[in-house]
Structure to design on (201 residues):
């Protein structure tokens, strides 16, 4: 089963939350609602990846992860998509370039956790991402110190918006990023798999 490409229009602000979602859980849903609110997004897309190139063991089948994501995230402004599988992209930079070609005039914002910011400089073409797409970083209270020591945060310190400017994140030229603290739900895909709460076919 394949899902339709999301429909949107030029001028809309669309947040992008990428990952394997293996499985999707309430933590993903929670940060999605927070991102919509904090960063002034018109909508948010979950980019359910075919697989993580950094992991040796593949995730559960894409169709199963897509179905689970739709069960977990029932929100009128959140869309679940297999865009990466359709576009044939493996890395975030490739996916962003393909999205920009497919949706001219849409303002995309990349959403990620502080843990990803800490190792962001290991991502392929991470500087291209930073230079072309605003980034919204969500973190548990207390993670600010670790994020402050991230290489990407240090190099692009000049492009950081203060938390009170978060609503304006999409309305300016990259590089620009914003770090906000949000209460987090203590659940992870790894823990769910470890306790046998997710069937891997």
């Amino acid at each position: 089963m394949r899902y339709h490409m999301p429909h949107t229009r030029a001028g809309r602000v669309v947040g992008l939350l990428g990952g394997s979602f293996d499985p999707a859980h309430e933590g993903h849903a929670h940060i999605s609602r927070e991102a919509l609110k904090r960063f002034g997004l018109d909508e948010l897309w979950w980019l359910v990846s075919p697989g993580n190139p950094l992991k040796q063991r593949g995730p559960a089948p894409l169709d199963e992860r897509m179905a689970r994501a739709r069960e977990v995230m029932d929100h009128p402004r959140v869309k679940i998509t297999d865009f990466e599988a359709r576009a044939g992209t493996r890395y975030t930079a490739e996916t962003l370039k393909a999205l920009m070609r497919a949706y001219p005039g849409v303002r995309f914002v990349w959403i990620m956790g502080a843990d990803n910011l800490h190792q962001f400089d290991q991502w392929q073409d991470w500087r291209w991402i930073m230079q072309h797409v605003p980034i919204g970083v969500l973190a548990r209270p207390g993670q600010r110190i670790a994020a402050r020591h991230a290489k990407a945060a240090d190099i692009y310190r000049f492009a950081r918006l203060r938390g009170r400017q978060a609503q304006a994140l999409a309305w300016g030229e990259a590089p620009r990023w914003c770090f906000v603290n949000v209460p987090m739900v203590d659940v992870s895909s790894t823990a769910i798999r470890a306790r046998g709460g997710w069937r891997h076919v």
Q: What stands out?
A: The CA atoms of residues 161 and 178 lie 5 Å apart. Residues 13-194 form a domain with the Rossmann fold fold (CATH 3.40.50.620).
